[in-house]
Amino acid sequence: MSLAPPFTRETANAKVKKAQDLWNTRCVFTISDSSPLVDRHRNPQNVSKAYTEDSVWRNRDKFLTGQAEIVEFLTAKWNKEKNYRLRKELFAWTENRIAVQFWYEYQDSNDGLKWKRYVLLYHARPLRRHMGKDHDARDADVSRCYGLEDWTFAQDGRMRKRQMSGNDVEISEAERWFTDGVDVNSVDISEKHW
């Protein structure tokens, strides 16, 4: 099955899951036959090959162009975001565009390795509306927003544009969805998180 445009529901969903798997893949290096070393970092160079040489990204407040900037960005991202686990789901598609909702969890190396969940911005609802009229947003320990990532593809199937917005949410160990050994696709994510 070709994962290049024009997309069908089947090929768009396969493209989303392929991207999920690529971003979740860890590098494994062997020092010698008797001493294997597993590098738990992602491979930005490998991930960048899924994008055109002149791919344009907006990731939060960062604007990038081209594979070299993508590699630099992903290297810094994954130096900060340890034990990264990602899930992507197809939201909508057209002939050469796909909208994706995603969630990922990681430990923040700049914040004492606290677990965090990342969710996209879609509907920014007032916090007070969902926590009761007497709750002040300043009192909240955790906030969440929901949303989409927008991808546009070249005819060869590589992504030529990626637009994304999102927020980090601190979570406890008990709140984690994507724990060690769990297939991220098997986690039941309730409607309130979609």
From TrEMBL:
Superkingdom assignment: Eukaryota
InterPro entries, sorted: DUF1348, NTF2-like_dom_sf
Pfam families with a match to the protein in the record: DUF1348 (PF07080)
Entries under SUPFAM superfamilies matching the protein: NTF2-like (SSF54427)
Protein's recorded name: DUF1348-domain-containing protein
Naturally occurring in which organism (per UniProt): Teratosphaeria destructans
